[in-house]
């Protein structure tokens, strides 16, 4: 009897089963590899945007330095029995770490930082009023890190207004004058550095030890937000960021309000934000 060369049903079933197992294993390996690649790409994307923002801030504030000392010429000498007037040139805010007076209360969950900084611009000198703050985007339901820069001519005029007043301005008035928002686009540029930036925090170094009195390093008073002649040794800027790839997954999520971004225990934060969250920090040494 002649033997058939065809496969038996059992052999075919074994071959099909082995093939299916191999295909399933290959698909699983491919899926896990694709997921890992996507996660790494999101981290790199977040890193690129955050690093660019940190580099811009470091470039600006590392150039911040005290102005030369000078005596005011417009403040009259006090009369007999009258208290001496403060020197407006030594009291105006060269560095200001607090919220702009017109910042809405709901936006004060992020800190803000402002400074009079020498930087390139279209004005006649280099000294510009620069500020960094976060604003809420109602369309994306997320915060945007914003940089505003007032060109040097307008900054100079604002500085003259602060210094030439007979009765020196208080800190709030000086900040409103020097770091005014919403000026003409021809004299003030406002740039969005990165979207999906939140928990923007600024920390400063302790006051250095005093070699004369022997007093050791101490924290600055909590009430001091403006710095003029005596600057901190450094400022530390820290924030959380979400890259654009991760942000696409949560874009137009109406449930994401300001409170969700600052509530890591909420379900929305855990599911939508936490998987793509990255934290960044830089410490910028100031000139003294």
Task: Summarize it.
The chain is an alpha+beta fold and 288 residues long.
Strand content: 15-25%
**Radius of gyration, taken over Cα atoms and rounded to an integer in Å:** 29 Å
Give the beta-strand count.
9
Number of helices: 7
List unreliable stretches of 5+ residues.
Answer: 70-78, 83-90
Sheet having the most strands: 6 strands, antiparallel
Query: What shape does the CA trace take?
Result: elongated
Mean pLDDT rating: 80
Q: Could you state the order of secondary-structure elements as H and E?
A: HHEEEEHHEEEEHHHE
Structural class: alpha+beta
Walk across the major sheet and give the strand order: 5-4-3-2-1-7
What's the domain count? 1
Cα distance spanning the termini: 104 Å
Bin the helical content.
Answer: 25-40%
Essential attributes:
three-stranded antiparallel sheet; 288 residues
Molecular structure report:
With 288 residues, this protein is α+β, with helices and mostly antiparallel strands. The protein has seven helices and nine strands, in the order ααββββααββββαααβ. The strands form two sheets. A six-stranded antiparallel beta sheet has the order 5-4-3-2-1-7, with helices on both faces. Strands 6-8-9 form a three-stranded antiparallel beta sheet. The radius of gyration is 29 Å and the shape is elongated.
Provide the fold topology.
Blueprint lengths: L8 H53 L26 H4 L3 E2 L16 E6 L8 E11 L4 E9 L1 H13 L6 H8 L9 E8 L1 E8 L21 E2 L6 E9 L1 H5 L9 H4 L5 H7 L3 E9 L3
Antiparallel strand pairs: 1-2, 1-7, 2-3, 3-4, 4-5, 6-8, 8-9
Helix pairs in contact: 3-4
């Amino acid at each position: 009897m002649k033997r058939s060369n065809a496969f038996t049903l059992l052999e075919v079933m074994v071959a099909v089963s082995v093939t299916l197992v191999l295909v399933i294993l290959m698909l699983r390996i491919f899926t896990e590899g694709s997921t890992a690649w996507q996660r790494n790409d999101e981290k790199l994307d977040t890193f690129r945007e955050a690093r660019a923002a940190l580099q811009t801030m470091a470039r600006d504030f590392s150039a911040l330095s005290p102005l030369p000392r000078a005596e005011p010429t417009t403040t009259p000498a006090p009369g007999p029995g009258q208290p001496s007037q403060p020197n407006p040139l030594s009291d105006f805010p060269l560095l200001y770490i607090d919220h702009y007076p017109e910042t809405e209360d709901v936006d004060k969950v992020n800190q803000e930082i402002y400074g009079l900084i020498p930087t390139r611009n279209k004005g006649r000198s280099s000294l510009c009023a620069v500020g960094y703050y976060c604003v809420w985007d109602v369309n994306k339901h997320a915060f945007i890190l914003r940089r505003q820069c007032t060109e040097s001519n307008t900054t100079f005029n604002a500085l003259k207004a602060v210094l030439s007043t007979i009765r020196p301005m208080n800190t709030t008035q000086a900040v409103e004058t020097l770091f005014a928002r919403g000026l003409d686009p021809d004299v003030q540029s406002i740039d969005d550095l990165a979207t999906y930036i939140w928990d923007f925090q600024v920390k400063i170094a302790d006051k250095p030890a005093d070699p004369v009195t022997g007093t050791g390093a101490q924290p600055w008073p909590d009430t001091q937000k403006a710095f003029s002649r005596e600057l901190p040794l450094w400022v530390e800027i820290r924030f959380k960021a979400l890259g654009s790839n991760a942000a696409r997954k949560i874009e137009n999520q109406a449930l994401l309000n300001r409170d969700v971004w600052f509530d890591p225990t909420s379900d929305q934060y855990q599911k939508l934000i936490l998987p793509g969250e990255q934290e960044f920090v830089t410490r910028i040494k100031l000139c003294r």
